[in-house]
Write a structure and sequence with these properties.
There is one protein chain. This protein has 304 residues and is α+β, with helices and mostly antiparallel strands. It contains six helices and 16 strands. Strands 9, 10, 11, 12, 13, 14, 15 and 16 form an eight-stranded antiparallel sheet that branches. The protein has a four-stranded mixed sheet with strand order 1-4-3-2, covered by helices on one side. A four-stranded mixed sheet has the order 5-8-7-6, covered by helices on one side. Strand 13 and strand 14 form a beta hairpin. The chain is elongated, with a radius of gyration of 25 Å. The N and C termini lie far apart (68 Å). The mean pLDDT is 94.
Length: 304
């Protein structure tokens, strides 16, 4: 037995199904117009309306058609639910389904059961849920974390501001040689820090924090990832096997005499076996990269 969702439209079926095929990476198997039916069965003016459409997405099928004008109604009381395993793909699908006038009912975010979940009604009136569930049997961060500390010649207040003011972040954040070209922060649980960097070779790299916990002058806990100019999540542009998300903690402790010890702790979030291997093999490069970033922070604090 197969249970198939059948969507009804009022003259928008063809446009909707072509959109769904593009967003869901599917294939339209059938698009039958009223004019393709038996002679005389189609009312005048209804020739181009879709009698039946069939879309194949993976092993699933979505069907639909244009209802007669006097029977067309908006969908209600259900959602078409999309299940995905990859958080970047889940965010892409949610964003693209909502383009062109969709209404977001629940923004895409982490929940207690899902790495990402969101709800929207697209511009054709179809309600959607996009769900990337957590593996209930998997550890959130199964590997020993990477950690590095540096004692800074500045108070916790000053160091905290350096990490929580986007204008200050622009003056030191990132690897050596990088120029921050965008820096936007919404400092609250669930909020984001979104930044763009221009590397010495001219390439642009984007990143994103999603804050989980904020304890003023004490710690920031967030999920970090590579990003794009639209705030989407992406994989490492040069190392696609790198963990797509990292659980990160920035800790600030009083070191006495007006100094502050800063510690960053990094661990891959629900990593695949390939991501685990990349993380374990990248500890030396992480040490080098973070050392360079902290040197830039020290230089900035001396000038602040």
């Amino acid at each position: 037995m197969d249970l198939v969702i059948y969507l009804g439209f009022d003259g928008q079926c063809e446009e909707a199904f072509k959109t769904y095929a593009k967003v869901l990476r599917g294939e339209i198997l059938m698009m039958v117009r009223n004019s393709d039916g038996p002679p005389g069965a189609c009312a005048p003016g209804m020739e181009n309306r879709i009698m039946h459409a069939r879309l194949k997405v993976g092993d699933a099928v979505l069907m639909g058609g244009d209802a007669p004008p006097d029977r067309a109604s908006k969908p209600q009381g259900f959602c078409a639910n999309i299940m995905l395993d990859d958080v970047a793909e889940a965010e892409r699908v949610f964003r693209e389904l909502g383009e062109g006038g969709g209404t977001v009912q629940m923004p895409m975010a982490e929940t207690f059961w899902a790495r990402r979940f969101g709800m929207l009604v697209d511009r054709f009136g179809t309600p959607w849920m996009v769900n990337c569930e957590k593996d209930a049997t998997a550890q959130e961060t199964p590997l020993p974390p990477f950690s590095i500390s540096r004692t800074l010649e500045a108070s916790r207040e000053v160091v905290w501001q350096a990490f929580t003011d986007p204008e200050r972040m622009k003056r030191w954040w990132g690897p050596k040689g990088a120029k921050i070209i965008a820096s936007h922060m919404d400092l609250r649980p669930g909020g984001t820090y979104h930044y763009g960097m221009q590397m010495p070779d001219g390439q642009e790299l984007w990143g994103r924090f999603v804050f989980r916990q904020i304890v003023p002058k004490d710690k920031l806990v967030f999920v970090s990832s590579f990003s794009d100019p639209r705030r989407g999540i992406t994989r490492h542009p040069m190392a696609p096997q790198w963990p797509i998300e990292m659980l990160s903690t920035f800790a600030f402790t009083d070191a006495g005499d007006g100094r502050t010890t800063f510690t960053v702790t990094w661990a891959p979030l629900y990593p695949t076996s390939e991501e685990q291997a990349a993380f374990e093999g990248g500890r030396a490069s992480m040490q080098q990269g973070w050392s360079g970033t902290l040197e830039q922070l020290e230089s900035y604090l001396r000038q602040a």
